[in-house]
Design brief:
12 strands; mainly beta; about 10% helix; two-stranded antiparallel ribbon; about 170 residues
C-alpha cells in the first residue's frame, strides 16, 4: 500500500489527468547508483497501481530545484481537477478489481514560497453536503463557487497542494 501519489505539476499540462499519466509513465534513470554504492549505469522505473486506498491522497509536486539560483522554487501553475475521479483507467490490468471511483473530500492549499507560507484546507462538512474552509483557528462555510474555482484550476487563496479523494462506494 501507499500513503500518497506524487504528481509532477511541471509536466501536468494543466490538469490532473496529465499529472497522473506522467507519474505512471515508465522512464529510464541515467547514472543510477545501486544500494551497494556502485554505479549501475541506467535503470528502468515504473509505477503500477494494483489497488487503491479508501482515502486517496494526491500530492501535487509544486517544489523544484532551481540550479541557476541555487534554491528551491515553488511552481504556481494551475492544475484543474474533478469533483468526481475515476481511477479505473490508471489501475494496472493485474489489479484486484473493485471500485475505483472517488469523490473529492478535501483540498489542502498553500500560499507563499517554497520555503515558507501558510496552509489552509477546504473540506467537506459532516454528511458531505457542504464545504468548510479551515485556516489556523478560523473555520467558515465555503461556498460551492470556491470549490468550483479550485477544481477549474483558478488559483484562489493559494495553490492546491494535496487533493484528498474518498472512495465513492455508493456508485
Amino acid at each position: 500500500p501507499f500513503s500518497e501519489l506524487l504528481l509532477p505539476v511541471a509536466a501536468a499540462g494543466g490538469d490532473l489527468d496529465g499529472a497522473i499519466r506522467e507519474a505512471l509513465r515508465p522512464s529510464e534513470l541515467e547514472g543510477f547508483v545501486g544500494p551497494s554504492g556502485r554505479r549501475a549505469g541506467s535503470a528502468h522505473k515504473e509505477v503500477a497501481l494494483l489497488s487503491l486506498p479508501q482515502l486517496l491522497c494526491l500530492q501535487l509536486q509544486r517544489v523544484t530545484y532551481d540550479a541557476e539560483a541555487g534554491r528551491a522554487r515553488k511552481l504556481d501553475a494551475s492544475v484543474a481537477f474533478p469533483l468526481r475521479l475515476d481511477m479505473g483507467p490508471y489501475v494496472s490490468s493485474g489489479g484486484n478489481g473493485g471500485s475505483w471511483r472517488y469523490v473529492l473530500h478535501a483540498v489542502l492549499l498553500h500560499e507563499g514560497a517554497a520555503s515558507s507560507g501558510h496552509y489552509q484546507c477546504v473540506c467537506r462538512a459532516g454528511g458531505g453536503s457542504g464545504w468548510v474552509r479551515l485556516s489556523d483557528d478560523d473555520c467558515e462555510v465555503a461556498d460551492d463557487d470556491l470549490v468550483r474555482r479550485l477544481c477549474a484550476g483558478e488559483v484562489a487563496a493559494g495553490a492546491p497542494y494535496c487533493l484528498y479523494y474518498a472512495r465513492d462506494d455508493g456508485g
